[in-house]
Amino acid sequence: MKTNRASDTAHAGAFIRALESTVPAQKRIADDQYAIQFVKPYLQTILRMCRRMPTLQRGLTWVLDRYFPTVVADFICRTAWIDAHIEQAVARGIDTLVIIGAGYDTRPLRLTCLTNCTVYEVDHPDTQVRKQALLGSSLRPSHQFIPVDLADQKELADCLPQFDKPVFFLLEGLLGYLTLTDVEKLFAQLAKMAPMGSEILFSYIQQSFIQQSTQTGYPKRMRKYLDDRGESFRSGLASETLPTFLASCHFQLLANINPLDYATEYLKPRQRQFTLFPIFGLAKAVRVEN
């Protein structure tokens, strides 16, 4: 990641969530009324116009989906999927959320289930500085920021408190920007920190997509887009070997989906259409005995 500025991918995710929040309620998949604060002023103006002009919202979403197939749907649907799983975890009694590589995640503000929970955000200092400046008084005392450049592989245990009961770890939009070695080290650290019964939910890039990005077409175009911004994908995971990888870190896989699964759960019920390829993944696992 380029230094001395907030992540471009964090900006992009915030814009897509803000755009989806302008969709009429009956068709809306995810709602993030805070996301608009993170986008540039001229884009804020466009987003406000989208609220008044549904045709503009639909047209802009269509253009983004055509230029970056699957990306828009993935940002929107994974937001809803993760929200639901956090709500379920809190209902089961988990009261601590650790967001690693938080970017412009606004769940501590918009999910009412987190009102009485402690939230730790671990991310690059550049991103956190801007986020705190924009959110200001909206932040709760139980919402704590831990500035860490994850690429440096600083021991997370040195930055976070020792946990004595199950916690929920969220790694959204992070793993693809780390090397495979760093991903393995990160999961090993989490296994040491996580009490039995802790849950981890993470998004990842399919290994096959990384391999295709050196060729032609859309994978190559996305690679160039990210390379130009200093935020290249550095590693991917293979769905078929995910259970084995997690087991080596003392986690048991509970769920594993890709964008093709979004159609049934989120798109068809709302009569929404997006281009979907299985290039990303979402998985949840639980900490088990060594």
UniProtKB/TrEMBL annotation:
Keywords: Methyltransferase, S-adenosyl-L-methionine, Transferase
Keyword Methyltransferase: yes
EC number: 2.1.1.-
One example GO MF annotation: methyltransferase activity
Gene3D superfamilies: Vaccinia Virus protein VP39
InterPro entries reported in the protein's UniProt record: Ppm1/Ppm2/Tcmp, SAM-dependent_MTases_sf, SAM_mthyl_Trfase_ML2640-like
GO BP terms: methylation
Family of this protein: Belongs to the UPF0677 family.
Function text: Exhibits S-adenosyl-L-methionine-dependent methyltransferase activity.
Protein name, as recorded: S-adenosyl-L-methionine-dependent methyltransferase
Lineage summary: Bacteria, Pseudomonadati, Bacteroidota, Cytophagia, Cytophagales
